[in-house]
Write a structure and sequence with these properties.
The protein has 301 residues and is of the alpha/beta class. It folds into 2 domains: 19-80, no CATH class; 105-298, Rossmann fold (3-Layer(aba) Sandwich). The termini are far apart. The protein has helices at 2-10, 30-44, 51-55, 58-71, 85-100, 107-119, 136-145, 177-183, 219-229, 248-258, 291-298; strands at residues 21-27, 75-80, 126-130, 150-154, 190-194, 209-214, 233-241, 266-267, 273-276. The structure holds S-adenosylmethionine.
């Protein structure tokens, strides 16, 4: 115990903010959730401190854990997805994708991305993702997109800009574009662009979008993506961003950008947020108004 305390004291400071959610349990059916909880309780009952709590039974133990977490500013979140063959198939897909690629999304977040891509196929436009890393979330998008054109943007050299409020470091999360192309070679109409977005946005300045997935982990990148994509979203088109709930820079960029817009930033359980474009009226943004403005502000030379 003493050794453990010493180790904890000497541990390196955390790079990220503490996560506001302590557990996320996803399952296709109530029984999956119950089995998971039972497994947690079995583990708890092996520790001296928590054995009495676990012995009081499932409901009582969960209530106590939940109360304890909430008094420390945490929340216990459970997710039970619909019990139908389609959901089972999607969860299987997500599990396979997780085994083969490193996906930095929770299962439920991957499910949310998959379903939103599917549901927005009725809206005209291409699909884009900024923040591809090893292609895990892109794989999920590919599985849902059918023949839709998908544009994937990443520096592949990690996070490009870091501001004071960001908890990531410059160059974090580098990956290889070749690995991503290879991982997605079975899907048609997929385009991979290497470099700092939106300097790499030249090929898509005239496109409209039905779905955009942002997963860039930092304030400036998120803000620049919103500036670029907002005016290019088709009405009914949807933007999902990872980490709105747990990365302060992502949250700030969304809240600032949409403060004077019609659209609401809808916070989802887990860490994502979702925005549905509701009006095609051009609204003044620093770079979103026209191709000329984008080229002037963002493209080199
Ligand atoms: C968390 S990872 C993406 C994870 C991926 N979506 C997944 O679920 O597997 C964040 C990525 O954003 C990229 N990134 C951040 N800002 C960027 C920018 N302005 N342009 C291009 N890539 C950027 C980083 O290089 C990094 O690979």
């Amino acid at each position: 115990m003493k050794a453990m305390k010493k180790r904890m004291k000497n541990a390196a400071p955390e790079k990220f903010n503490p996560h506001p959610y302590s557990f996320l349990i996803t399952g296709e059916h109530d029984t999956v959730v119950k089995k998971t909880i039972a497994a947690i309780l079995r583990r708890l009952s092996r520790t001296n401190v928590l054995r009495p709590l676990a012995k009081r039974g499932l409901e009582a133990a969960l209530a106590a854990i939940s109360y304890g977490l909430s008094s420390k500013g945490h929340a216990l979140v459970f997710y039970a997805l619909p019990n139908n063959p389609e959901t089972k198939k999607i969860m299987e897909l997500i599990r396979n994708a997780k085994e083969r690629h490193q996906i930095l999304l929770h299962d439920y977040e991957a499910y949310q991305v998959f379903m939103t891509v599917k549901k927005t196929l009725k809206v005209e436009g291409d699909i884009a993702e900024v923040g591809v890393f090893r292609g895990g979330s892109a794989k999920i998008i590919c599985e849902a997109k059918g023949h839709r054109r998908l544009h994937l943007f990443d520096t592949f050299e990690g996070i490009p800009h870091v501001s004071e409020i960001d908890r990531v470091y410059k160059g974090q999360l580098a990956a290889s574009p070749e690995d991503v192309k290879n991982a997605l070679r079975e899907y048609g109409n997929v385009h991979v662009y290497k470099g700092v977005f939106p300097e790499t946005a030249g090929p898509i300045v005239d496109k409209k979008f039905s779905f955009v997935h942002l997963d860039v982990d930092a304030y400036e990148s998120t803000r620049n993506c919103l500036k670029f994509f907002y005016s290019r979203m088709t009405v009914g088109g949807t933007i999902i961003s990872h980490n709105y709930g747990d990365i302060i820079g992502v949250r700030k960029a969304f809240d600032e950008f949409f403060a004077d817009k019609l659209e609401s930033v809808v916070e989802l359980a887990c860490t994502q947020c979702l925005v549905v474009k509701v009006s095609s009226l051009e609204q003044p943004t620093a770079a979103g108004a026209s191709k000329e403005a984008i080229e002037k502000e963002w493209l080199p030379g």
